[in-house]
Specification:
The protein has 345 residues and is of the alpha/beta class. Helix content is 32%, strand content 25%. It is built from twelve helices and 17 strands. The chain has a five-stranded mixed barrel with strand order 6-9-7-8-10. The protein has a four-stranded mixed beta sheet with strand order 12-14-16-17, with no helix packed on it. Helix 3 packs across helix 6 and helix 6 crosses helix 7. It starts with a strand and ends with a helix.
Length: 345
């Protein structure tokens, strides 16, 4: 199950509602969704891959997934945003209908970068075995490489099996000091990689997540369609709505070069760098310039004597900020004047 419905406003002006982050070549030469499908194919073929997106994006997503053998019937359209608990519940209901409640469901997002793909697939396969054996909800927690306040964290509890632990507690994005403490304590990044048997997951939602429980029960009884289902739930994230409430959550440490590609600054970790540490896309010339991120579409960019900048050009619009402030780009987008916010994509 690939979640591919977001916009990625932190990648404005390149990412727009009509051309969202997952359809852009941010980590490499192909789109993030393309890379996700290619990465998964040795483990899960296209005919067993579901993609959930919003209704407006269905045509664009359909074109992107067709080369990987994903049929149009495997595209699940979310009529309205309703949180990840509802999105994953609807996908699990569809999987249960097609393959039964014991079918193992792998949940990933369409906008990640992964450096060591063989290790990534091996971790997913291991998580599937654990989900079957322990009838548990399994998440893969990333071994941190830095104390990043932009991620949620998972406290590891008692060991259940080799490299398998009870998930004691989920912590939303801490401040930088607390993030450093959590890394030193052996906490893991909350990746959003989930693995479980579809029926086990739906049963736990019924027990612990009143925001979606009634809608799940009706849908499992074939008494509702997608539009009625999403209209009848209360939005809640899967972390808050279920994982923090269930006693059946296990976590497996993962170390395979994962990055959620959350801001322009992330491209300095996921893209190949030049000799001066610049991550560039498009026609870019840099002299005496170090540690910059440049994305040039529709025009050339020349850097001279600058460091740690983000420069993005597209169709006559140029945005310049610092690596540090690029994490706040969502705030910029929300403050844009009408004449700029309404520019055609």
């Amino acid at each position: 199950m690939i979640l591919a419905g977001g916009v990625g406003s932190r990648f404005w002006p390149v990412s727009t509602p009509e051309r969202p982050k997952q359809l852009l070549p941010l980590a490499g030469e192909q789109s993030l969704l393309h890379d996700t499908l290619r990465r998964l194919q040795p483990l899960v073929p296209g005919e067993r891959t579901l993609v959930l997106t919003n209704e407006a994006l269905v045509p664009a997503i359909a074109s992107a997934v067709a080369p990987f053998g994903v049929p149009s019937t495997n595209l699940l359209a979310e009529p309205v945003p309703a949180g990840t608990a509802a999105a994953l519940a609807w996908a699990a209901i569809e999987i249960e209908r097609r393959a039964g409640g014991s079918a193992v469901m792998l949940c990933v997002h369409a906008d990640w970068a992964v450096a060591q793909e063989d290790k990534f697939r091996a971790a997913l396969a291991h998580a599937a075995d654990v989900a079957r054996e322990h009838r548990s909800l399994v998440t893969i927690g990333i071994v941190p490489t830095r104390p990043d306040p932009g991620y949620g964290y998972i406290h590891r509890g008692r060991p259940v099996a080799p490299d398998v632990f009870a998930a004691d507690r989920f912590v939303e994005k801490p401040n930088r000091v607390r993030a450093a403490e959590m890394v030193s304590e052996g906490c893991l990044w909350n990746s959003g990689i989930f693995v479980w048997q579809a029926g086990d997951f739906l049963d736990e939602l019924r027990r612990h997540t009143p925001e979606v429980a009634a809608a799940v029960q009706a849908a499992r009884a074939h008494k509702t369609d997608a539009r009625a289902f999403f209209a009848s739930v209360r939005p809640v994230s899967i972390d808050v709505g279920l994982l923090e409430r269930s006693a059946r959550v296990l976590v497996i440490p993962g170390d395979f070069g994962w990055d959620d590609v959350g801001t322009w600054a992330a491209l300095s970790r996921t893209r190949a760098l030049d000799a001066a540490g610049n991550a560039v896309y498009g026609p870019v010339y840099a002299k005496d310039a170090n540690g910059n991120v440049v994305h040039a579409e529709g025009g050339a960019v020349v850097l001279y004597g600058v460091s740690d900048l983000v420069v993005v050009t597209r169709d006559g619009l140029t945005v310049v900020t610092t690596i540090e402030r690029s994490a706040d780009l969502k705030n910029l987008v929300e403050s844009l004047p009408d004449w700029l916010a309404s520019r055609p994509a």
